[in-house]
Amino acid sequence: MVTTWVPNVSPTSDFSLANLPFGIITTPSDPLPHAAVAIGTWVLDLKALSAAPLFAAVFPSLPPQIFSHPTLNRFAALGRPTHRAVRATLQSLLSNAADADPRLRDDAALRAAALLPRASATSHLPMAVGDYTDFYAGYHHAFAVGALFRGPGAELQPNYARLPVGYHGRASSVVVSGTLIRRPVGQFVLPDDPAGAPVVGPSRRVDFEVELGCFMARGNEMGVGVPVEEAEDFVFGYVLLNDWSARDVQAWEYVPLGPFNSKNFGTTVSPWVVLADALEPFRVKGVENPAGEVLEYLRGREDAVFDIGLEVDLTTPEGDTMTISKTTSKHLMWSFPQMIAHHTLGGCPLRTGDLLGSGTISGPGGPEERGCLLEMTQGGKKEILLYGMDARTYLKDGDTITIRGACGEPGARVGFGECRGRIYSAEQRK
Amino acid sequence: MVTTWVPNVSPTSDFSLANLPFGIITTPSDPLPHAAVAIGTWVLDLKALSAAPLFAAVFPSLPPQIFSHPTLNRFAALGRPTHRAVRATLQSLLSNAADADPRLRDDAALRAAALLPRASATSHLPMAVGDYTDFYAGYHHAFAVGALFRGPGAELQPNYARLPVGYHGRASSVVVSGTLIRRPVGQFVLPDDPAGAPVVGPSRRVDFEVELGCFMARGNEMGVGVPVEEAEDFVFGYVLLNDWSARDVQAWEYVPLGPFNSKNFGTTVSPWVVLADALEPFRVKGVENPAGEVLEYLRGREDAVFDIGLEVDLTTPEGDTMTISKTTSKHLMWSFPQMIAHHTLGGCPLRTGDLLGSGTISGPGGPEERGCLLEMTQGGKKEILLYGMDARTYLKDGDTITIRGACGEPGARVGFGECRGRIYSAEQRK
Ligand SMILES: [Ca+2]
Ligand SMILES: [Ca+2]
Ligand SMILES: [Mg+2]
Ligand SMILES: [Mg+2]
Ligand code: NI
Question: Catalytic positions (chains A, B) (predicted)?
């Protein structure tokens, strides 16, 4: 295993040399948002690096300002072969292998300028999101929610196994990890109101949804679809995503045009974009499609989902943290290449920076492997227990949800860091 | 009635002195997209105007480059009082009233530089659209579609009269009038297939939807809703909107998360944004809500919709044009202020340039006042007749749909020009 000369990179760090995820930071010395990669508890400030002669020497074909922009969109638009080459060069600069490039390692002044403690940097939303689409590709989630609402024998809608069901989400409320989320006020019907007249008030059923997010590197021309076997070339990288959901609002509003205010009050993503290439070693086959063979435009390679371990922590307002769920992203039945092929089938243009959500990822077992409280509590009927006799059906004001995800062996882990958000009261301003 | 010195402005022109809609153009002498207003068969090139000393004299507080950007977003973001003042100043410069500002009228060189035949300019999408939301506020449309799918007694869903139902649309495929629209390939179930196995192919049920579009001037902070009585201050202006729809794809995909590929292949808007102030004289009360009083956050002034006459022309591939529908936007049951209040109720942030669609606007009568073919043909069961024994259930390749809309008396008409698009074959590239 090739290791790094960067000090104190723990074998359990999400940000090993095998990862090098990209993000947007500000630092005490540079308050304009700009690009960096994460390694261990450090960031390599790519804008600071690009001020040194070394930058043009190792990246002769990169535009000199490429890492000085407030989002990664321009870098993403350069395409996967460029991302791959840049990541490999950065790996060499950060490696302590005998044949690695020593010029950063041996330059104390440049190290001091560009290698900064991650704790000193503030992370920002890594991409400007043109459009956000949320899919429903987690098989066990769709099955469990269907069982809850329609009962046994009718769990999956007839279209579920035939196409990656999805809906257009709200790009304006996609926020970076750490952003506070206000409990939404909404319109809903109280469960004990026989007349069914709606009321307005703070949602009583605020939930999270554990998802993978996929950022597009490049787009397609309007009217021209992306073949499934080419779709991976359009991907920049992946993040963790929490699709906050107000279940009472959703139940009342969603017929016939789908979820709206129940979803658009906030969607949190983790700050570090794990490049598609970093996840290559973790390909697996997804969940078997119960319909058998899919239509031809959806037939791509079989190992097109990733086996990423996912964990969800709930931290109470009192500060007690408990891991309430563990699952893996191999529970997706549709892959991102299939989602992209389907999304563009009719000619819909995707653009650099567009975000695709996988849909909630749940395991097939008990509450401890489910990706949202709706499933864990069977629609709010069974509480989950926390430490100290505390319990939840849905989230309380002051609760924090933290999603973590990683794959790979110690010392070469490819992880996402945290996707974290705290719900604050509808009655208060931030 | 105050008239203009601009030559040959017909009393029937949509672009009277009482209108002065804003758009984005390129011209033979200036190929960079920039702002203009339309008057009669002319455009007043605002970038050309801003190069003259007169500009700073009449607009001392406007940023000098405000009309040199490729979209109207920055101008929109200045807010309604600014739009109102700028429009009033332009009206004075273009008026032949005795007390009008004569400095443009009397400056032959500036007139030659800034007042150009509209036919010599190319129109572009007027705003950068961050997010696009489509509502369902046309009462007679919702009622008729419900009758078609659910039968008498169950026309309206229980939520319909309680909240402005809407869904997130696709911003990337919002295009300006004139853009060709490829017939989408999609997945759908053939009506005569008893097994109901889906197929993939060019949609056989491509439809249009007549709507009003509303562009946002400014946004709200995430977490902080817009009260209904303040919502009009957030509006920049209005356009005509055609929400192209593939009905066979829609029927198969829309459960349970709403329309997706059936809608995201294209949405056409008219190029000239009619400022909110220009529509002030045409306020009316919308359709009576059958549920009676709405919840408090939706209670705004009653005359909050506009009475804009709408017409739809179908032009066949052979070039025959027939007006197939006439209706008015007073058939909306929810107003844009209500849509904005509802959209932001849970804290969803709107941003400058965001687009809201009203939903299909239909009259209560026969096919000749319906806003889409789904209604006109009762779900494809009754053909509509065109000239020369031609007929349609849904659109054929090569068909052009042109929506027009206007209000006001001859000589002071406030109109939108055209919202036009032609469907080309799924088998061909543009
Ligand atoms: Ca979701
Ligand atoms: Ca529509
Ligand atoms: Mg969300
Ligand atoms: Mg559309
Ligand atoms: Ni009516």
Answer: 141 (proton acceptor)
